[in-house]
Write a structure and sequence with these properties.
By secondary structure, this protein is α/β, with parallel strands linked by helices. The protein is built from 20 helices and 13 strands. The chain folds into 2 domains: 204 residues, 3-Layer(aba) Sandwich (D-Maltodextrin-Binding Protein, domain 2), CATH 3.40.190; 220 residues, Periplasmic binding protein-like II (D-Maltodextrin-Binding Protein, domain 2). InterPro entries: Bact_solute-bd_prot1, SBP.
Length: 439
Amino acid sequence: MNSAVLRPVAAVAAALLLTACTTDSGPEAESRIGDSGEVTLTVWDQELVGGQDVQMEKLNEAFHRKYPNVRIRRVKRSLEDLRKALHTARVSDSPPDVVQVNQGHADMARLVAAKRLRPLDSYDHIYGWSKRYPKGLLDINSVTPDGRTVGSGSLYGVSLNGEIVGIFYNRKKLARLGLRPPSSWAGFERALAIAKDHGEVPISLGNRQPIPVTHSFGVIQDQVAGKRAVRDLFFGRGGSWTDAANLRAARTLQEWVRRGYLVAHPGKLAYDDDAFAAGEGVFLIGGTWFASGLGEHMGGDVGFVLPPPARAGGAPTTMGGESLPFAVTAESEHPDVAAAYLDFISSPQAMDVVTEAGLLPALRPRSGRPRTAVLKDVFAAWDTLSRTDGLTPYIDNATPTFPDVLGNALLGLVAGRTGPRDGMAEVQKNYAAFLTARR
C-alpha cells in the first residue's frame, strides 16, 4: 500500500466517526455482519509453517461457517515478501482488508504514521479486546497516531499466538552426553563445550537470513544486559548498542562461532529447524512456532527450555511476546467485517484451534490443552514468563530499518567479516539517527 494512492484521510475519518458513534454490542455487531450481503474479505498473512498454516485454514473455514455471506480470500506470503508488499503495494481491484503487520518501528509505526492502518479503539468498545488481553500484550500492538511512540496510543492489531524465543534440545543426545536441560547460563555454556568435545554440533545456525542470528544474539543479550536494559534500549529510554553489556554480548556470539558452539551454514539454510529435526545439533535457539513441526518429526525426543538465567536461581528472561498482529487497513471497504474477523480469531474458541494445531495461543484457550511433550514445555515456559514478567521485545524492531541493519551486523560477526566494536558501532549509528529524527 502506498500513502499516495490510499483513500483521502477525510473519508477514513468520516468512516471512523460513524463507527465510533455506534452503540452496537458484540452480538448486535455479529448480527449486522450476517446481514451485510455477500462480502469478500481479503486477508494477507505470513502463517506458512506447519501448525501456523493449519490454524489459519481452520479459523477461516470456521469464520465462513459462522458468516456464510463472507468469503475469505487468503493471500499467503513469506514475512519478507509481506513486509515489502505492505510498504510498496498500490491499491488494486482487491486491496487487502486485514493484514499481518510486524510490531514496532520497522513496520507498524511506519504504516500508522502514513495513515495506512485503521485504529481499533472504536471496535474495542464493541468487542472488549482491552478486557481480553493483558495490558502488556495490548501495548505491544499500540502506537501513537503520529507513529513516533510504540507501546502507547491507539490499538492497531490483535495477535493470535504467544511467542517465546528459547532453547529446543534433543533429549536423546543430552542423555548420551550425561547432561540435563541447563538451569544456569554457565551450565548452558558448559553443555555446549561438552557437546563439541564429543563430536556433536552444539547449535546449528541457518544464516541465509538475519532472523536466526538475531534471535541467538537476543538470547545472549538478555542474559548479559538484563531485561530492564534491553527494554529501555528498545523503547529509546536510555542505553547504547556500544555499551559494555552489548559489546560483551556481541563478543560472546562471535566467540561461540570460533569455538564451534554455533555452527553456521553459509547461505544454505534460511532457518535451522529442519537440520535440527533431522538430527543435527544438540540445541536449537528458536521460537515456539517451531514446536509443532519439531514435535511432529521428533516426537518425545524434543524438549524446550527457557534460556537459563545468568545467576542460578534467578528469574528467566528472553525475547518474545505475541505473534504479528492482524490489523485492519485504512483502505478496507469492509472495516466492520474485518473487525469481526479480528474478534473471531482472538476468541477463546480460536485459542483452542491454535492449541490443537500445536502452537502457543496468545490467550488462555477455552478447553484446549497441549498434547505433545514439547508443547507442554512451551506452555509451562509461557506461564513462568507471565508470572515473572520475563519477556523482552524483539530487538530488530527498534528502528524502521533495524531488521536489516542489526541483522547484517550480526551476520558479519558470525562470518568473521567484522569485530564486535565495529559491528555494534554501525548498529548504534542507525539507532542514534532514528532517535534524533524522532525528537
